[in-house]
Amino acid sequence: MTHYLRALAARVRGLFGDRRADQELEDEIEAHLRLLTERYTRQGMTEEEAARAARRQFGNVTLLQEVNHEMRGIRLIDTFFQDVRYSLSMLRRNPGFTFVATLTLGLGIGANTAVFSVVNAVLLRSLPYRDADRLVIVPQTKDSDFLRWRDQSMGFEGIAAYSSVTARLTGSGEQERLSAGQVSADLFATLGVAPALGRAFTPAEDKPGGDPVVILSDGLWRRRFNGDPQVIGHALTIENQSRTVIGIMPHGFRFPGESDLWLPLALNAVQESAGDEESGSVTMVNVIARLKPGMTLEAARANLSAFRERKQPDSPKGEALEIIVDVVVGNKPDSPQLGFPKEQENGPDEPLRVAGLLESHVGNVRLQLLILFGAVLFVLLIACANVANLLLARSAVRQKEMAIRVAVGAGRLRLVRQLLTESLLLSVVGGAAGLLAAKWGVKLLVAMSPAEIARIKESDVDGGVLGFTCLVVLLTGLLAGVFPALSASKVDVNETLKALTTTGGGRSRRGGALRALPVLMIAELALALVLLVGAGLMIKSFLRLLAIPKGFNPDGVLTLNPSSSLINYPPGSPQRANFFHELLARVQALPGVQSAGLTGFLPLTEPGMSLKQDNFIEGRPQFRPGTAPFIVLNHISRDYFQTMGIEMRAGRPFTTQDGAKAPRVAIINETIARRFFPDENPIGHRLSLDVGRPPTIATIVGVAGDTRHSGLDQDVKYEVYLPYLQHTDWEQYLTVAVRVAAGQNNPTVLSSLATAIRNQAQAIEPNEPVDQVVTMNERLSNSVAGRRFQMLLLGVFAGIALVIATVGIYGVISYAVSRRTHEIGVRMALGAQAGDVLRMVVWRGMSLTLVGVALGLAAALGLTRVLKNQLFEVKPTDPATFALIALLLIGVALIASYIPARRATKVDPLQALRHE
Fold this sequence. Notes:
29 helices, single chain, alpha+beta, about 50% helix
């Protein structure tokens, strides 16, 4: 036992460099050499001859020192710094090689760091709530369901509801429209977050008629009130109502969405009564709940679904009509929900959807980000293969150095460690450069990202990302350097030194290294082709999306969203109708305006009102229960179609005669006409619309072209247009659309016109700020922002991969040409023509390229299936894209091979032979 402890102590001393032991060994070696020298001197040798003979007899001093170090435990710190100093010296001697290698690795590491910072912020980082993994959300649920669930507890630790709204803050500085959350009193407790100052809402305040109170976000408190704690207890005017500030939330808390303040939701507990079911009016809220420990998401979904089914009315009449209308104060018709996929929203008759809160934030973004992360990993692998090629080519030049080091006693492990230190040093320098690039790259990614990617603004190069980068640097250095190091350290000393002596030029047989170069180049090409095919599919999909018929002309159209609350003009009141009528008249009179119209919602926005009923067309059989389609209702003015460039396919548009006292009329879209009137003219047929009591009977007077809502990639909805003047009692919010006159569609005119429209709205109602004047082209651009973001990033990464692969091809062929200079000189001396040499070298590059392309196509056929749900009207195995990308890569490889091949034809046979 004592022996092992002494050995361990010796190794620990050796780890940090035991100078005394080294000196003792040197003294002992020197004593032996001195004794041997004296013996040979006494035998008649000269002192110089005796010293040489003594060293020959004693053996390899350096080897003995290395063995001693191994026995004591290698002094890792000393040898590590020796390796680092030597590696730095070698890299300084080859600035071109060092620059290319570090730039290549920097691109790969920097791209991975930037994308990982986004993945970390959006997908990996836990939500800032207590035990966030136990929070679940039920989006777009009937308020009556929530009230029943809350009363019955349903096995949750807490349950709350909320809705995203807008609120106008006045009376304290400049009026401002803010994002707000209408929340039930239990929301903050359910999330596990308490106000930093003051208190949360009480149950009494969360009832109709409760005390008017408000809670402010930390950002609004500091920006608007300079962080004054005395604001607690003071009154603020919000939507023309005085509300008392009772709390300030902690820094960074903005749930739901980007809320600046919070108001009580104040749901009416009697809204589940029969009267409300018959009216068909349903308030939709998002429900959030905290699971009890041990309760699973599946169990929560089953409990809620079973309870809701038990409470559903048995009468088919009760299910005949359900109108989904946001009736909370100030709710915007195109407000994005919490990132939850649209198909997972809970309509009143839809299957119940329950998901974890983090998953609801992520939505459909998870797959997009993982695809991008996979793409940058491919870029990093290509960069590693390229640097490995460079190191292999460089190792052939260092044959003499390796052979001499082995001859003087260096073991293979020692050589491998030295070479790995060089590759790791390259990786560290590349990682440092990549880290700097990543800081800029993260800002660019955030700026380019669409608004629906939740939490992406929190992306930063923090401690976790830095740790990831360090791990990537280590793995990259090993991955790029281990094979070249093993290959270079396999040295046949006698053969290498003999070859060096006979040729004088440093050429020996390095078959293993040379065979590895083409293998790595083929791997680069295959990986690059997979990325290029993925980018090509995304580009083609995006172009198909933009080319799809939109049904409207966005050029030269401005849109204005007045406050949807308009407290001074309640829905259904004559004052509200007069407000929009006067606003429309003022806008139409502005210089440069060709036409203007009103609409309940614009194309590319979520419809504000839908109805579902069994009897839709008068005189037709009713739909079977559960099969009735959702019909989208849109209230418009007479000039709306002209303003938006929506064509009339049949019949007529609305006219001034279609007023409040005129017979009810309607215009249907083409999809309804094809579905319900395939072989007859729909004009003159009557629709039964359960809008109010009694139901509205409207005569079809026209068929309008289809327009798309919820995005260009979504199916066209069944849409019915109604004159807004005939349904002012149902109008909740209207949007103004304005088309500029011909020749006026330029940024300057649109900007000045937007200002003029704001001024006209303010002239009618000074207390209503107008800050949403945007062009339809902006709305169109925003609707495809997610796909554009993914397409651009995949395209950039594929472009980087193509450049790196091209450099790799050029480097391998150039190295092969330099190694075969003697052979080329002999061929040309024997009569070979320049064309023969050109074809020989180019064919070498193209043969490798064809193998890489074939392997890449096979890999792409499997991997691009991951993109299936991200593509629009393009198959993941689209043959045209595969063929085009393959030809592109072959063409680039041809150019990269031609340049060194052309240089090979310039070889002077006499100089080549003389050099050899």
